[in-house]
Write a structure and sequence with these properties.
4 copies of one chain form a homotetramer. With about 180 residues, the first copy, chain A, is mostly helical. Chain A contains 9 helices and no strands. Chain C binds a DNA duplex (21 and 21 nucleotides) through helix 1 and helix 3.
DNA sequence: GATGAATGAGCATTCATTCAT
DNA sequence: AATGAATGAATGCTCATTCAT
């Protein structure tokens, strides 16, 4: 008992184990992983998963929210950078390099799910939009696209670059096509 | 038995009907369409589908290959066009506009399946590669990418642009990013 | 009523086995019997049940529709009887005696389910209403109640008289209270 | 165990809170209310419920018995009333109007459970039986029924009149059928 | 060859009950 | 004594695949 946390020690441990299993499973296979499989990997019963997360979608959300928040923080740091174009592409590079290029995040952004409207995702999208608009106003990014278009293009590239056999060079080249396509000509 | 018609013709007609139904269903809803639904649309029993295709995946591939052959024909026509860059982007426009922008093809290309190594696919890839190389040699398309990179980028864009709520303008803008990203700067 | 095209022999046999198992189970325990249990008793897989009946509620409906139709036939016969009061109570006696005093039928009538609106049930309710109205107009049945009130009172009595330990005399006395309560004083 | 020893003050308080929550919940929704929900409403953990009541059914019975005792008190008051028929129907009116017309009591009386044999229930049945017998002897209530018949008829009416959509007028009319059926003709 | 009936593992989710804290 | 976390068997329903007709 080192802390006076509201969650009991064993509960927190299980919650973390479930989240870890969910993160790994969702990152590798997307939201289609059976919840029972996640429970099994976490070494708990399915009921325990539901004790911590009311629906499978809520678990999915929780599994990626950390990643999203870290990305949002980074986007906010860059929002006041001197060079908006450099900041915009810096964020994209970060996103790709950071390891966030997972099936889970790809499936989360731009989907029709309620997830998109959740506060953390909304926060991330807002900060990305800021970066996009600044870069567009400075003339470095094509002005004919909006946030949705950007997310769609990125999501597609995330999806296709998340296969086990891909090399770093291939991933880099695939993103290069999209990134260059975002610049003004 | 009582007719003079050879059974072979019956079988082939059924095979074609199954393929047609599969093409339509997969194009509209992706690989998740129940096989029973395809059988129903084809006017045959599910057992008949299995007579011609050992698994659902095999049917999916067969449905794709058919599409691929038509694309290959078009690519071959363009392979000798006067303007290689115009031919290359003309093929892509065709692919996108013609109706090949379907969930099925998007789900098939660039996957890990044996599909890619099949003879028809090899044929299509060869002819697309020809178009790509000619366009690259003529200086209109970026030289740092290979066929795989091109397919990956297209596949991602196909995937994200095949949702029911998307508008034509959104689809056009999303592909514009990728197409412009393919050009030399 | 054409049921559609004739089922294959094995299919019809299984359909009957499922229906028989469903009738028995629903009659004894009401609609809460697990569908898998009915499948097990019928010696088939749950998928087979769903092949014949799209939902559990549809199976429930099918299981009691025979009973309902026989009751409706009887009610229609009595609709033109010389003595409306005798006809009305004759129908109720028949209902009770016939063996229709089962949990299933009790749960079916007067519930909020879509079942009530189904054609066979609607037919039965219509013919019962006819008997009720005629008996009321002839002065033998209390005029202050409508079909719903009648069904409610009957349903309650059905429910409480469907326990294994009840004797015929007890069942008769319980219904006597309700039946006498239906008469004008 | 030490049956006679009083519970600790906090234990008894918890027991009462659980009972109060159970009474309210069972009355509103019947025995299907999740035990966790009752614990939550009582402000205790589910484990605490199990400390006081070995099973959910035992809790249900305990909640009922409490109600029953209050009814018994009222029945005893009426046992010496001047007009036995008025007393009998006065008790029934009380039962119906007082709020005892709840799912819980309806589900409990006349069931096969050990509940009926418990001392408090025996007490209530005795006092109701007294009211019934006195009313029968005075000639106002039909002599051909016994206590069980009365309880069964009431239980059925309770069950069918405890649905959310029912109106007061409908409930009144349904009970009127049974009450009038109890009178001598 | 064709049919379509049957299979049964699998899915997300609930909840009475147990037990470690 | 109390807590509340964990359990896991169930539930209604789907669908790729097999197999009797």
């Amino acid at each position: 008992m080192t802390e006076g946390r509201p969650l009991r020690a064993d509960a927190r441990r299980n919650r973390e184990r479930v989240l870890a299993a969910a993160r790994e499973a969702f990152a590798a296979e997307g939201i289609s992983v059976p919840l029972d499989e996640i429970a099994r990997r976490a070494g708990v019963g399915p009921g325990t998963v539901y004790r911590h997360f009311p629906t499978k979608e809520a678990l999915f959300h929780a599994a990626i929210v950390d990643n999203i928040e870290r990305l949002t923080d980074y986007a906010r740091e860059l929002a006041t950078a001197a060079d908006p174009v450099h900041a915009f592409f810096g964020f994209l590079d970060h996103w790709v390099a950071e390891g966030a290029v997972k099936r889970d995040l790809a499936e989360a952004i731009g989907s029709d799910h309620a997830l998109e409207l959740s506060s953390p995702v909304k926060g991330m999208l807002d900060s990305i939009e800021t970066l996009l608009h600044r870069a567009q106003r400075s003339g470095g990014v094509r002005p004919d696209i909006d946030l949705d278009d950007l997310l769609r293009a990125l999501k597609g590239t995330f999806l296709v670059t998340h296969i086990p056999t891909i090399t770093d060079a291939q991933r880099r080249r695939t993103f290069a096509i999209v990134f260059d396509g975002l610049r003004v000509r």
